[in-house]
Amino acid sequence: MSNEKQFFKDSIRARSRALFLEQHEHICKKSDRMFAGLMMLQWAAAVLCALFFTPLTWIGADSRIHFHVWMAVLFGGLISVMPAYLAVRRPGLYSTRAVIAVCQMLMSTLLIHLSGGRIETHFHIFGSLAFLAFYLDWRILVPATVVVALDHWFRGTYFPASVFGVFATEPWRWAEHAAWVLFEDFFLVISCREGIRNLKAISIKRAELEVTNERIEQEVAERSGEVKLLLESSAEGIYGVDLEGKCTFINQAALKMLGYEASELLGRNMHDAVHHKRADGSPYPAEACPIYKAIMTGARSRVDSEVLWKKDGISFPVE
Fold it and tell me: How far apart are CA 97 and CA 43, in angstroms?
């Protein structure tokens, strides 16, 4: 009994693991498709921002195409097309969502740069992190956070106007921004772990149900086999019919009694084959057969006696 219980537990554990991986992969693939569309949308937004706002932000009232527009088109295209391609061609993989996480953060830095370091644009970083949490994989938050911290440190040191909107800033201001990102990461990691925990719990419940159903079906099949074996070995002639009166089972004793082969009766209407014939041997309507009536009406009426006909035309009474 202990071996059976252990086998049952092992089956549930293996099945729940498979179900969890299947469901998590489905979530990751769905998130990949979402980011594939989001990347293209953000790229278009970056180009429009460079065309209509950046020239005025960076060089006064002279609105013309310059370096920032090409940066939005080329760099924005690079960090948008590559993750979108991976999302379509290699969905569900960790490497794909890690690349998406990095490129999404680079898109945030590009938009911050194009807006001239407007503080409001920094909210794009926090929104992006929230979207990345849809993967229920806290590991991808690590490279995303590192990209933001390095970008703010480098540009905050050498090009502060492009990230903070001012030409002179405190040396450690980038660390303050990185700290706020880590603050959000803390809660997102908790959310991801809770989501994974719930997904595992659902997978275990589903695995228990599936394994239990399989076990019941196996036991039913075994019991049915035992019953069939018992009927096969019975000395009494036994056969079964469906609601249409067609033979579904007949044992060797009945075949010997009637003089038929199993292939001659299985699937055939038993009333026409062996039941109730007139004195001249011709069958009369099945509706007159008490067994036929019992089958069609679902009645539990008992037929005390009837006449069966062998294959060679000899009749004999049965009870």
Answer: 18
Write out the H or E segment, with its range, that includes residue 258. helix 252-258
pLDDT in tens, 162-173: 888 777 777 788
Classify residue 140 as exposed, middle or buried by CB count within 10 Å of its CB (0-12, 13-18, 19+): buried
Structure tokens at 65: 């195409």
Q: Which amino acid is at 118?
A: R
- This prediction's pTM: 0.69
Contact 286, 319 (CB under 8 A): no
Phi, psi of 313 (to 5 degrees): 95, 0
- Closest Cα partner for 290 from 273, 276, 272, 308? 276
- The angle subtended at Cα 103 by Cα 98 and Cα 107, nearest 5°, is 150
Which residues lie across from 239 on neighbouring strands?
250
Q: Burial, 135: exposed, middle or buried (Cβ in 10 Å; 0-12, 13-18, 19+)?
A: buried
Q: Residue 269 pairs with which residues in a beta bridge?
A: 246
Which is it for the CA torsion 185, 187, 188, 190, positive or negative?
positive
- Which residue's entry shows tokens 């595992």? 200
